[in-house]
Task: inverse folding
């Protein structure tokens, strides 16, 4: 595939990987919505993906005039907001007052995150398909 | 009557053109060679990506993009080969 289109596809592919990471994190947030114990102690803490631009390795980039810039996951950080508290004295992890500290996960927020990540994934797939069609059309030039 | 003098001409043309012809020929062969190498390389990469995906080490989209790239490179190679063959046949049909 021609080099400029190649870097464009690489950029879109990096976005696909980043959106997949966002979905993974949203899914793990949803999965652990009731987890009162974690490896670090205390309830599970909601996690968030931090994205960062990542130059696509190309000749143009080496020359300092890259047109395609990819994205990568810079970090997965924990949400530091306070855990939810629910009165449930019978729970084994309840404190002296009978309150259980639950993860600071809001299902609605996770659903919105997941939807937006899925839409972004689709958008990048569409971009890749568009580039594929362009290359295909260019190859059709030779078919005359 | 002897026809000897004509034989002297044959030595001139090859000496003048063979160098350039060989260079042009090798350049084209090199280009074709590189195209074939690119095809080979992209298909090997696609192969690697697909097996990585099957092993759970890679993403589906990476495998698909690698496959798509391999297909595009193959199509380009086939197009170049078609054009080459077409040009050859054109020359062969040329009335002399």
Result:
């Amino acid at each position: 595939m021609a080099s400029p289109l190649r870097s464009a596809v690489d950029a879109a592919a990096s976005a696909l990987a980043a959106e997949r990471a966002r979905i993974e994190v949203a899914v793990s947030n949803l999965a652990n919505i009731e987890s009162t114990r974690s490896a670090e102690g205390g309830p599970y803490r909601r996690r968030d993906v931090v994205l960062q631009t990542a130059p696509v390795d190309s000749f143009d980039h080496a020359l300092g005039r890259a047109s395609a810039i990819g994205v990568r996951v810079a970090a997965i950080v924990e949400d530091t907001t306070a855990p939810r508290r629910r009165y449930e004295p019978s729970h084994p992890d309840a404190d002296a007052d009978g309150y259980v500290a639950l993860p600071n996960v809001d299902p609605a927020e996770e659903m919105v995150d997941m939807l937006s990540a899925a839409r972004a994934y689709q958008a990048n797939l569409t971009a890749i398909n568009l580039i594929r069609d362009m290359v295909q059309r260019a190859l059709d030039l030779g078919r005359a | 009557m002897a026809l000897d003098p004509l034989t002297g001409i044959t030595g001139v043309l090859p000496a003048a053109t063979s160098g350039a012809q060989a260079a042009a020929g090798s350049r084209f062969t090199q280009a074709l060679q590189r195209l074939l190498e690119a095809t080979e390389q992209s298909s090997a990469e696609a192969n690697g990506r697909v097996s990585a995906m099957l092993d759970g080490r890679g993403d589906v989209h990476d495998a698909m993009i690698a496959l798509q790239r391999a297909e595009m490179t193959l199509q380009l190679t086939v197009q170049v080969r078609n054009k080459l063959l077409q040009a050859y046949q054109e020359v062969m049909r040329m009335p002399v």
About this structure: Chain B touches chain A at residues 59, 61-62, 65, 68-69, 72-73, 75-76, 79-80, 82-83 (CB under 8 Å). Chain B has a mean pLDDT of 79. Residues 83 and 89 of chain B are 10 Å apart (CA to CA).
